[in-house]
Design a protein that fits this description.
Order of helices and strands: HHHHEEH
Distance between the termini: 39 Å
Number of helices: 5
Helix content: 25-40%
Strand content: 5-15%
Oligomer: single chain
Number of domains: 3
Structural class: mainly alpha
Radius of gyration: 22 Å
Length: 130
């Protein structure tokens, strides 16, 4: 079974306690969860990733090359996704072309402003993380 949290940036060998999905349907008996609570506690308090290492050495710098900047971005994105170094979403820098593309699905103009928690923002600004 593939770890359900590995694509979320967590270790692919994170502790898991698995049960059949039917057990969580309305009206089902969930007493097996209570019987196995020690597995939950141990997974949360004692598990250590085999991928963590001893922390005594630095990770090597990764270099990605491409025929163009777009090719290098594409290769870097594919490398990061393949290694599960993110949340599963594409890891692209916000170029003007990409912001324009994502805003094609917006119903408001790109300069439409709104306030959130006392700050002013625009759709274009939010989509470019600026």
């Amino acid at each position: 079974m593939t770890n359900a949290v590995a694509g979320l940036g967590l270790a692919p060998d994170a502790a898991m306690v698995t049960f059949p999905i039917e057990m969580f349907l309305p009206g089902s008996d969930i007493s097996p969860v209570e019987a196995r609570k020690r597995e939950f506690y141990d997974g949360l308090t004692q598990w250590r990733s085999a991928f963590a290492g001893d922390g005594g050495t630095e990770s090597p710098m990764i270099t990605v090359q491409g025929a163009s900047i777009e090719d290098a971005f594409s290769r870097a994105n594919n490398l990061m996704l393949a290694n599960r170094w993110g949340d599963g979403l594409p890891l692209w820098p916000p170029t003007r072309e990409r912001v324009d593309w994502i805003l094609r699905g917006a119903t408001q103009p790109r300069e439409a402003g709104f306030a959130s928690h006392g700050a002013q923002a625009t759709l274009a600004g939010l989509s470019s993380k600026s």
